[in-house]
Amino acid sequence: MLVGGEAAGVAASRLGQAGKAAWLGRAARFTTSDGFLFGSIGFKAPFDFKVGLYASENTLKYETFNWSTIAPEVVTKNQWFGRNMLQITPAFQETLGPWSSQVIPQGTYLRIGLVGPQTGVGFGSWLQLYAPQGVNFIK
Amino acid sequence: MEELIIKNKAVKFNSPTQIINMGGPWVGVLFIGELKIMVDVIIDNLFYSKEDDRLYFVRYHKISKWEKENYFTINYFDLSTNKLYMFDMKFEMVFLKEINNSSELIYYEAFHDRDESRKKQLILGNAIELLLDK
Predict the structure, then answer these.
(1) How distant, in Å, are the alpha carbons of A93, A116, B122, B131 from that of A20?
(2) In angstroms, what separates the C-alpha of B80 from chain A's closest C-alpha?
(3) Residue of B nearest to A96 (CA)
(4) Per-residue pLDDT tens digits for A66-85
(5) Is the pTM of this model over 0.95?
């Protein structure tokens, strides 16, 4: 049986979780169909540059990718980064794919912006690049 | 996905591409043999039910700039009549698993079947007939 402060703490915690879930659900409404928070800006890559991504099974199978990011390698080793800052939820992938370093060639049309929230994870929002036509893996 | 052969015809996908965000599912154009069935079909999530001679699959409907307004539907192609159908239900996420007792579809509210807490059942009712994509 809970009394006084304990009960208030539990209630606040439950309310906090419910409130957080509701807030995240609302935040996900501002994610565009290509995964950005509010929107993105288009440009052509002025030179070749290195990016990284968590590669799904199909990404590895087809050896092409659309979404990538730029981040220090040390942070990419932490699952929290992929789950929260890149919004790869457990409902999307139960286990995060391997981190893969790739190169976007000069002249590739890209869109850049912040990662849009997905329902079920925290409100992380890291830099994200999207190549609508896809980019082939470097061999 | 291992190659699926139904009645000597290969089930295959053209133009595979990823959707939603990094780690998101992949869609492609579904073919049975040379017959084009539908665009934007989730790759790796379809199955053939011998009992009713149907191929079940999931289609992504990108109708809006905003992700929350886009959705998935469960569809099937009836190989005995060569007709295409869609169930009138929208899903934020769905992964098809199997048919139970010819009338109950087991699915997951996710893009995979590894989280039992997301397992659901759907009684298959009437479906809407669609025209084949040209």
Answers:
(1) 22, 16, 30, 43
(2) 31
(3) B23
(4) 999 999 989 999 989 999 99
(5) no
